[in-house]
Amino acid sequence: MIQTNVFDYIKVLDKAADASWLRNDAIANNIANVDTPGYKRQDVAFESVLQKALGHNRYVSMDSKVSAAGKKNLSVRTFTDYSGFSYRLDGNNVDIENENIMLAENQLKYQGLLTSISQEFTNLQTVMK
């Protein structure tokens, strides 16, 4: 069987899109619980996992870094932000303005990731012609 690294970038982009989708759910949950006493906001940790997987070795090509990252288990995890300051007496630490900004940012990031995945497949089609 032929082994190829053609889909390495697509695998990493796919994981990033999954993380963005999960972050969208977490932000929507935060917005829905803005008035729930004691609720602590949730977020998704993916960028730090990806950065660690890509490594800091400057003598390795980006293709090699992405290939290695695509083979690793880039785990996406949701975490609860207990360290966030609460401006309210009920202990809720959700700031609705901040959540709305993060939602808009995340939606733009998700659209960009989908465009990048689509472009990768377009590049593959072009090469196969």
* Helix percent band: 55-70%
Count of helix runs: 4
Overall SS class: mainly alpha
**What is the subunit arrangement here?**
single chain
Number of domains: 1
How does the major sheet shape up? Answer: 2 strands, antiparallel
Beta-strand share of residues: 5-15%
Q: Which regions are unreliable across 5 or more consecutive residues at pLDDT < 50? A: none
* Overall spatial form: elongated
Beta strands, count: 2
The SSE string, one letter per element, is HEHHEH
Rounded mean pLDDT score: 85
Distance between the termini: 22 Å
Q: State Rg.
A: 18 Å
Task: Provide the spatial order of strands within the biggest beta sheet.
Answer: 1-2
Structure description:
- This protein is mainly alpha-helical.
- It has one domain (8-82, 93-128).
- The protein is built from 4 helices and 2 strands.
- The chain has helices spanning 8-32, 47-54, 62-71, 96-128, and strands at 42-45, 77-80.
- The chain has a two-stranded antiparallel ribbon with strand order 1-2.
- Helix 1 packs antiparallel against helix 4.
